[in-house]
Write a structure and sequence with these properties.
mainly alpha, three-stranded antiparallel beta sheet, 6 helices, 3 strands, about 5% strand
Length: about 150
């Protein structure tokens, strides 16, 4: 009986997120901080998203990545960051969605947060992502700067 209740709750949550996306024309995690944090935690736990503070050396973090990628040096990996990933979306439309989700008063420009964190949206793992971090799902060829219909 508990399993049926859990399935029902999951379906209701998915419907809520679909309705949010239909209403805002934005990915739900850009508008729902709880969903974004849930997805980000999944990225941390299951896909090695990090480091926690990219401005630090983070030697243990990069050593794990070096072991995973089987490279001679962690320095080889330091350009394999979200900001260069093929799933990192920094299109104007997506940045507008992130801005809308951050909100703020006139005196607090949400783009200040986006610029400070160099934020984008991970199309793979469905969360707002910082360009200086990385994860195990990284793919070369990014970021996504324009929608297919943009020139």
């Amino acid at each position: 009986m508990e399993e049926i209740k859990e399935i029902k709750e999951i379906k209701e949550m998915k419907l809520k997120h679909l309705a949010l996306e239909a209403k805002t024309k934005c990915p739900a995690p850009t508008q729902d901080i709880a969903l974004n944090l849930k997805n980000r935690q999944t990225a941390i736990d299951e896909y090695g998203y990090g480091p926690a503070d990219p401005s630090q050396k983070n030697e243990k973090f990069w050593q794990k990545k070096q072991d995973m990628w089987n490279t001679d040096s962690a320095d080889e990996l330091k350009d394999m960051i979200c900001g260069t990933c093929a799933a990192f979306d920094i299109t104007n439309k997506t940045l507008d969605c992130i801005s809308k989700g951050i909100g703020g008063e006139e005196a607090n420009d949400p783009y200040d947060v986006i610029d400070a964190g160099k934020l984008g949206y991970c199309r793979f793992l469905k969360f707002k992502c910082a360009s200086k971090r990385t994860c195990d799902a990284w793919v070369s060829g990014g970021p996504i700067k324009k929608e297919k219909n943009e020139k």
